[in-house]
Amino acid sequence: MTVELPSPPRRILLIKPSAIGDVVHTLPIWNLLRKRWPAAEISWLVTPGCAGLLDGLPGLNVIRFERGRLANAWRSASAAKELLGLGKWLRDLRFDLVIDLQGLFRSGWMTWQTHAPVRVGFANARELAWAFYTHRVPIESTEQHATERYLKVLAALGVPTGPIEYPFAHDERDRAHVETLLPAGTKYAVLLPGTNWPTKRWPVEKFARLVAPLRQRFGLEVVVAGGPDVAELADQIPDAINLAGQTNLPQLVALLDRADVVIANDSGPMHIAAALGRPLVAIYGPTSPVRTGPYYRMETVVRLDIPCSPCYSRQCSHQSCLQWLGIEPVLELAEQQMNGAGPAHS
Hints:
By secondary structure, this protein is α/β, with parallel strands linked by helices. It folds into two domains: 11-156, Glycogen Phosphorylase B (Rossmann fold), CATH 3.40.50; 173-338, Rossmann fold, CATH 3.40.50. It has helices spanning 20-36, 48-51, 67-70, 77-92, 105-113, 146-156, 172-181, 204-208, 211-218, 231-234, 249-257, 268-275, 289-292, 320-323, 327-338; strands spanning 11-15, 41-46, 60-64, 97-100, 118-122, 135-137, 188-192, 221-224, 241-242, 261-265, 280-283, 301-302. A six-stranded parallel sheet has the order 3-2-1-4-5-6, sandwiched between helices. α10 (231-234) links the parallel β8 (221-224) and β9. α1 runs parallel beside α6 and α1 (20-36) packs across α12. The longest helix is centred in the first third of the chain and has 17 residues, at 20-36.
């Protein structure tokens, strides 16, 4: 389908509130919109936990959406009042193009609240979100990468769908902060044992068993990174530099950008490392790398091809897809990556 715009948009709202990996996948979309309509004011509605990836990007207005608090609007009068106030505020901003890439009832409702004349989303958006759009972009199959689905929306708007670039907002201050956390001149591997589903977590004791061979075979110090929620896991990986909870998002980008190799569960920071083009081992179990893997970097994925995977389940009694994955395939792929098996796209 083609979306006919009455005139070049002057104010654009991009709705993709979370999670970190999804925001990373949407960065090229913002960048392509900016290039197509350089005179437009572009805003991005995002949760505070992901806003650090966007703050400081040139010309971008970051609108923080307190998802957790406003989710209680149906049972809290104060939250309901705040949600209605958000709707009025969005209307007052007078957007003429709104793009909802979240595709859930709440994001669809906010799209509708803007009263923008052109409101675009997926034809198969969940929770009846499609009912709030003026234009619905058909998606033929769910078995395609999230970024590919987002690019279909751009194509419908007549926006060129390349090149794919990830303009992260980190600077010399962030790089300098990382330098203070590590011994001077350190070559290092970053381990990212955290993830938002327990079923996506490769056993932490296997991460711990990587430390010695990474140091002995490749001469790398080992850094464990992630948010404060990773601290408990990091404590179980001895003889590593524990930076869990010691970096904000721009500083984490700077840390990963300098890494000699990153070994990670399916997580937001893994997608940052993939977008930066770092040597990477992405460990997959219950989820599909086709849908949510490192974009155009399938050569970085290690997984067991067993009948029950991917199951997309947040609960599992055995987690065979990850429990049976040993450290040698991970180390072998890490070596291949460090020897130059890099990104397959420009």
